Amino acid sequence: MKYVNEKDINEEIKWAQINTDILQSLQNPRKAYWVAVAVCVAMLACAVTAEVYQYQNGLGVADLNRPHMWGLYIATFIFWIGMSHSGTLLSAILHIIHADWRKPIYRFAEAMTTFSLMTAGFFPMIHLGRMWNLYWVIPYVTDRGIWPNFRSPLVWDAFAITTYLTSSALFLFIGMIPDLAICRDNVTGWRKKLYTVLSLGWQGTDRQWRHFRKTYMLMACFLIPLAVSVHSIVSSDFAMSIMPGWHVTSFPPYFVAGALYSGCAAIITLFILLRYFFRLEEYMTVALMEKTCKLTFAIAMVWTYLNLVEFGATWYGHDPVAKEVLISKFVGPFAPYFWAMMFFGSVLPFALAFEKLRRHMATMMVVSILLNVGMWLERWMIVGPTLSHAYAPEAWNFLWPSIVQWAIVFGSFGWFGLLFLIFVKVFPCVSMYEVKEMVFHRRREAHAEVAEKFHRRTDDMQQATGRPSVEGA
Amino acid sequence: MSHGYLFLSGPVGSSGVAVPHYRGSRYFLMVLAAMVLGFFLAISSAWADGGTSVPNAVPPKGEHEGKNVEQPIEFPHNIHVDVNKINCMYCHTYARRSKVAGIPPTSKCMGCHLVIATDKPRIKKLTEYWEKKEPPRWKKVHDVPDYVHFTHEKHLKRFVFDNEGMSVDNVSEVCAFCHGEVKKMTVAHKVKPLNMGFCARCHEANKGPFDCWKCHK
Amino acid sequence: MSLDNILTNWSRYRKGAEEGGFHEYEHQWGMVVDLNKCIGCNACSVACYAENNLPVVGEKRCGKNQAMNWLRIERYWDEPDIEPYKAIPTANVDVWIEGNPPAKKTDLKPSMPSSYLPGLLEQGGQSFEERVGFDGTKSEFQDFGASFLPMMCQQCHAATCEPVCPVAATYHTPDGLNAQVYNRCIGSRYCSNNCPYRLRYFNFWSYYEDAWPEPLHMQLNPDLSVRDKGVMEKCTFCVQRIRVAKDMAKMENRKVMDGEFATACVQTCPTGALVFGDMQNPESQVSKLWSYHQVERGKTKQSKQNKELRGYRILEGLNTDPSVLYLERVREV
User: Fold this and answer.
1) What is the ipTM of this complex?
2) CB of A361 closer than 8 Å to CB of A272
3) Closest chain A residue to C148 measured between Cα atoms?
4) pLDDT tens column, A335-361
5) What share of chain B is helix, strand, coil (3-state, %, to 5)?
6) What CATH code is carried by the domain that includes residue A342?
7) Which domains does chain C have, with CATH numbers?
8) Partner C, chain B 145-204, Cβ-Cβ below 8 Å
9) Interchain contact A188–B (C-beta under 8 A)
């Protein structure tokens, strides 16, 4: 227990130092940055090529077939939607419960939310047979007098995702306004113009701060039920159907837990990358890493529990077909991926329970990536086995997704990476004003402790000498 | 039709009063509400029932400027229908008994034009075709996509034959619902949009069927 | 349907829903399939291809399960180790027509729908390789014990595909049919995923491009659309024929008579295993068969007085309320 007195952040750090340290992340990029951009663009190019090919030839090129009408596209869609939930967790939930350790790391998590939603939004389009008619799911007044089918979970999806994307982008932006003002005051050139517009005339007056706090709190309160409902709605894509293995009551909480889980794992990954590449060790401290890891571990256990609930309910339930789907997950052609998912999702997180491993960045990097591999597999294990083994035995089959599907899934990571890379160079990825707040509070707490000790000592002295003390009054 | 949309415009209109504190935004909202209301009123007035001499019918509304189609012979509908009062179904004889109205065979034209107006240039052209034993290749003017199955027969039954007080002599007015005033044209060209909104509005006004599979299959 | 229409019909819908179905049905088309009479000749399926502009997708796409057989004959095999088959040795039959190269092992699917349980994959104590042979010389199939199940869209009255379509491209018609509107479909494929019978087929490719080369395109049925890539389709109970029959009846101001028309599969079936008709007409052959077999609509479990009766509906326990009645096959074993 040698780390017990470790601090979340060095409370003696100067405020000007915070500005310089974080603004240096906006300086001209180094070579490594351009290499990363090139890799992301190359990945994205794979996806674009595959998508153009698929658009011209039909979904047959993705090797989808009759039972497997949905493939990796929907699985990856859920994955990215899930990823978006951690940003809300860190920035909104931890904000309203006043867990101030979130402050140095919530900004990039929030950006991750927005960008993973922007990635997720592509997948329903890519997967549509006639994507040029996508707008038909939006209710609009037309002289044809036809409306979308409001009973369909896919229509709810469209509402949920657009609402969530708008709100999380707004939340990200609002939370950034004071920082944008700092940027505005410290830069020249085109950035100056950009930040001037974006900071909306922020002067840091009392009145502005008051409004800002209110707005931010309001948005946080609005975002939490929204985030929970979004993934519940996504889960109802499955839970509302009658297919064995999908028609599960516990799906909404299961999806939300899985979402928070994969999001937290992604936060660990990005945490380490930013800490390393932008040399933000002062702010993204090992202590914060520990806290994030513990949070992830807790969520992993919730997810494992909900998994077991689902299996148990199916195993002891009265639906033989659902049970058969479950068995086919255990021993069928999906078995390797299923057990990989169980290992990465439920066993590997125990690495987070060990202090030594938690503090070893390279290990955590690998572990967090593998956790997300597990969570991606989980989404595939939701979509795939049910389709391959449902009621009609004529349509039982297993088909390996084609290279087109893999390319688009692969490329989606490139797209996300590209957006994120642009973000970290254009906007401060650590919230400067909130770090200052945190430092301020910590400093006061630390001094209060000192003062308290001092008081006690002076009281003792007072009792001993019978003289009142002047110091510490 | 129009009062259905009041459902939508109602809350938008009232929201103009709902924000008491900010003068600017109140005016903005009021202007917005007025615009929205005006938009719906404009739509509903555009859809209001128009008059026609066909009984028990509300003609569909909608304008469209179709391209002029060059036909092998510039057939003058106006002379046949407006001047000589020939019934549409005399030539488009399948309209009352099948999905398509049909283009008359050359023999039908020659039935009259062996003796009538044989010296006119168009009729000479027609006679050439007749002698070559080759039909003029008429081009389609009113076309709908292949997934739309329009039936002339049912529409004529509804608006002409089963329509009390409707004379078959006035059939061109019913045809004009979708084909415009062909009797004023020489070569017919499209003047009605013939899209789904056009069909749906008429079906709604005239209590036509609303089953998708009536037209799409 | 405009908002106006929805609001007007909503109360009707709500009221009807309490009474078990909101439609005032004009007809309720239904079908009876007598499995005793089915010989598995696939004529119905061929007729369906011809009638409904179904593309022949070719061997490769068929192997990927991308075929468009709206009416498929499912083939099931009796377990080879039940009494009467035990005595019969598996014969070596050259199943490959001369000139065709023997298929590779991977091209063959086990004829019996294999569960993923490993035990079931091996039939009759023989592994898949033993039964088929690496060079494809042995028969993939058993010599005895095949049974056939023609499966077409069950036209469920509580169809699972309908509520999930985001754009309402599939809906219930006043004829009691489960409609699919191709030009409204955006291809989200949720309906097919939610169909327990897996009877909805998706246009994964622009099949029409190579399904009907030059002179063959003249065979296309003009009464219904040719579908392009990206839309879902399924058996319609030959809605174009229904439409013609109804139109004719309407022009003559009468009702559609029983047996006046039939769907392509029913018309073609050489043994008369399929019967089609209006179930609202108590005099129709279909209604008589349904009532004879004591199968009722709107039930998840039939309470038959006579247990010997053969009628059943597939997966009716899911409360889909299908319109197709199957008459069980009876064997002398």
Assistant:
1) 0.86
2) yes
3) A394
4) 999 999 999 999 999 999 988 888 888
5) 50, 0, 50
6) 1.20.1630.10
7) 3-75+150-327 (3.30.70.20), 79-144 (no CATH)
8) 145-147, 149, 151, 153-154, 157, 200, 204
9) no
